[in-house]
Amino acid sequence: MEKKAIYAVILCAILAGNNGLLIKSMNSMSTGGIAWFRTGIPVLFLIPFLIKDKEFHFRGNTKKMFLASFINAIRMYLYLLAFIYTSIGNAVVLFYTYPLFVTAIEYLFFKQKLQKAQTGFLVLAFIGIVITYLGKPFSFASNDFIGMLSAIGASIGYAVTVILFKSETPNYSKNQLIFYQNLIGALVFVPFLAFLPDVELPQIGVGILYGLLIGIVVFKLFFYGLKELTAATATTLMYLEVVSAIVLGYFVLDEKLSWNILAGGSLILISSFFISKLNRKKVQESLSTSAS
């Protein structure tokens, strides 16, 4: 069962690498409009299945799930801004700092001990972020600055939702988890649908595809894996999304890979990977101790 979960997360990561291409292809649509397709389509798609399976009787901590859904709506908007304003490489590398923020949040709010190695990797990741941004102006007039800052904001938001959703996965089905994840965003971004008459029909089709592929298929695969794996293991496997996204950006959009993106991105990804590995080891040791 664990092997199937690993394969599911790997496929999830590869498909998720299409995020940037799909977002950039909807260039005549507002950010809020794209956000609605990303959140609203999954909600509409899942309603008949929830009714059929009698899963509208939610259990568990509904307040926590609504909070996670609200944070996810903010995270989604920042995530889209990141891909719209900067390159796919910049956006995806900085977004993948979220395992670092998971560690920081657990330390600050859940009083988990921070090992020396974790502290070192956090510092290394910060250096990587600085290197990634070398040569770019620190100004809100700079598209790269807005995009990269949005990517870090989206990373923090995602770290929070991973922790919240992981704590409630035993209480909900995959459909319920995806429904909750997108619900607040689907409601908040409804006003942006007023601008759809100005959008070309093919882009609306891309928006629907985006919502189904990324909002349904990708997250079904991820939540399937998350139920069988630890959050640290699932997030570690998701690093394949970075490779997939950068390769697609390079070959399809002809995006250039500068030395600072490669160097800084490598430091960020190495730090995030090893922090995830250390977190996984801590979980395993904790389980062993409780079992004995």
Automatic annotation (TrEMBL):
SUPFAM superfamilies: Multidrug resistance efflux transporter EmrE (SSF103481). InterPro entries: EamA_dom, EmrE-like. Keywords: Membrane, Transmembrane, Transmembrane helix. Residues 4-133, 146-276 form the EamA domain. It holds the Pfam family EamA. The chain crosses the membrane at residues 5-23, 35-53, 121-139, 145-165, 177-196, 202-222, 229-251, 257-275. The keyword Transmembrane helix applies. This is EamA domain-containing protein.
